[in-house]
């Protein structure tokens, strides 16, 4: 007897690689990818699921450049996502909300915090709790996060900066809801209905093989 695991093949690579090409991303490109991430998190929350590990390495691109979330090892299903709390200290240092590390209980708003961190890294090239030139000590990063002192990138300006500040607040109850994020001026002019149907072209078309060509290449490498 054999067990076969069949998963979707995503040939566009990680969002992490796209950011690292230049060290940062222009605001318009960031706006597109964050908007698709917001829709993905909104969908999970509608199912009562907290994702809990939002970071560039867990966001892949399909062959057309649209995002897909992967790795649901830390995801948790709640009976009532509006009222219930999770208590497990999990996730990636630098992207975890402070309440997650305090073991005091947290809500779906932990994912909202991570969206704010993502915007910082995509536009600024580093997260608010690590220096641009340091390797990133997890213990130091977590201590900085607990302190609540933000080191926002200088090129994070205007509406983007305002949005991030509304997401990276220690008071999880004060963080924006998904509906409020979608209405923020940072996304002015974006047609969310068209984006959800994937009728808006991504800013970056991955330089990758077709699904068939990629599968042949993988077999050759193995």
Average of per-residue pLDDT values: 88
Number of domains: 1
Gyration radius from CA atoms, angstroms? 18 Å
Strand content: under 5%
The CATH C-level name is Mainly Alpha
Separation of the first and last Cα atoms: 23 Å
Going by CATH, the architecture would be: Orthogonal Bundle
The residue fraction in helices comes out at 25-40%
Largest sheet: 2 strands, antiparallel
**What's the CATH superfamily, by name?**
Transferase(Phosphotransferase) domain 1
Low-confidence stretches: 214-222
What is the string of helix and strand elements?
Answer: HHEEEEHHHHHHH
Q: Helix/strand/pairing class, anyone?
A: mainly alpha
Descriptive overview:
The chain is mainly alpha-helical and 222 residues long. The protein has one domain: Transferase(Phosphotransferase), domain 1 (Orthogonal Bundle), CATH 1.10.510. The protein is 39% helix and 5% strand. The protein is built from nine helices and four strands, in the order H-H-E-E-E-E-H-H-H-H-H-H-H. It has helices spanning 15-20, 27-46, 98-101, 109-124, 138-147, 158-167, 178-182, 192-196, 211-221; strands at residues 49-50, 59-61, 67-69, 76-77. The protein has a two-stranded antiparallel ribbon with strand order 1-4. It has a two-stranded antiparallel sheet with strand order 2-3. Helix 2 (27-46) packs antiparallel against helix 4 (109-124) and helix 4 packs antiparallel against helix 6 (158-167). The longest helix has 20 residues, at 27-46. It is globular, with a radius of gyration of 18 Å. Residues 214-222 have low confidence and may be disordered.
